[in-house]
Amino acid sequence: MPRGLFITLEGLDGSGKTTQMRRLAAWLAKRSPSRELVQTRQPGGTETGDRIRTLVLDARSTGLAPMTEMALMFADRAQAIAEVIEPALAAGKIVLCDRFTDSTEAYQGGGRQLGSELVLEFHRLLCGNLQPDLTLLLLPSLHSSLARARRRNTRAEAESESGENESRFEAEQDPFFIRAYEKYQEIARREPDRVILIAGDLSIDEVHEQIVEAVAERLITFAATA
User: Fold this and answer.
1) Residues 13, 189: Cα–Cα separation, whole Å
2) 5-225 has which fold?
3) β-sheet with 134-139: strand ranges across
4) Is 129 exposed, middle or buried (0-12, 13-18, 19+ CB in 10 A)?
5) What DSSP letter does each residue of 96-160 carry, written as one string?
6) String of b and e for 185-201 (b: at least 16 CB within 10 Å)?
7) pLDDT, tens digit only, all 226 positions of the chain
8) The model's pTM
9) Is there a contact between 72 and 51 (Cβ–Cβ < 8 Å)?
């Protein structure tokens, strides 16, 4: 059985990942109907991961040290790789994942100022250095990204009276997001063969067109080597 294809979507909060992942999944279902698709997310995607997600994203989780936060992200990731990602890839499936280690490098390495070296070493030790075959990095302008994150945080605050909400990162100040944004740019420059950068304030359709063009090209290569 040929190994499957591992595709990740990355970007700041408010970059449009959720919408684009949904549209890409629908496109893949039509483009490769014989190839089973597995969708997952990080943090989350497993029973253990969903518990971790609640802890690290809930606005009520205050006082988490940066190293604790990063360790929780990697605990989630290691479980997802063992339980979901690796079995699916071994079975020849396409795995579509909302966030992976690039997010940790951007948010904890950049935003929390822990640095890339530590994040990448954790990834090597805990995740077997598993790398996506293709990463789609959505980077609207920093101004647009921050505005969207702020709108999401405002909505989350309005809803918080009814219980938990996942606005913990959206509540960060601008310097945090600036560092994360710049780290994402650094990752794209460092790994141009893996990371497809889709930058600028594009429409949903324009972003989708660039995504399917990149994925279609990778599917051709994937089929040729299968």
Assistant:
1) 21
2) Rossmann fold (3.40.50)
3) 37-41, 94-98, 5-11, 134-139, 195-199
4) exposed
5) EEE--HHHHIIIIIIIT---HHHHHHHHHHHHTT---SEEEEEE--HHHHHHHHHHHHHHHHHHG
6) bebbeeeeebbbbbeee
7) 789 999 999 999 889 999 999 999 999 999 888 889 999 999 999 999 999 999 999 888 888 999 999 999 999 999 999 999 999 999 999 999 999 999 999 999 999 999 999 999 999 999 999 999 999 999 999 888 788 777 765 555 555 544 557 778 877 888 999 999 999 999 999 999 999 999 999 999 999 999 999 999 999 877 766 6
8) 0.91
9) no
DSSP bridge pairs for 135: 8, 195
Say which amino acid occupies 109. G
Within 8 A by CB and 6+ apart from 55, the residues are: 61, 72
Which residue, among 93, 79, 71, 1, has the nearest Cα to 41 in the 3D structure? 79
**Which tokens sit at 203?**
């429409």
The domain locations on the chain are 5-225
For residue 33, what are its two tokens?
A: 């109907």
Alpha carbons 100 and 134: distance in angstroms, whole number: 11
The token duo for 46 is 């497993």
Let me know how long the chain is: 226
